[in-house]
Write a structure and sequence with these properties.
Length: 61
């Protein structure tokens, strides 16, 4: 039983390290996601300027 738990734990740990390892070109989608998020926050800031200031949108409040 202990060996099975140990093997399962090691397998899970190896998967978690593979998922955490950055690959080439990962920054492109992050940059695009940040750009889209900023556009959404800017559009919502017209209706809720206090919230926009809380989350870091400049020029409101």
């Amino acid at each position: 039983m202990f060996k099975q738990l140990l093997a399962a734990g090691l397998l899970a740990a190896s998967f978690s390290t593979m998922a955490a390892a950055p690959g080439k070109g990962d920054g492109d989608w992050v940059e695009r996601s940040n750009q889209i998020a900023h556009e959404v926050l800017e559009s919502q800031a017209k209706f809720a300027p206090e919230f926009a200031s809380q989350v870091g949108v400049t020029g409101f409040d």
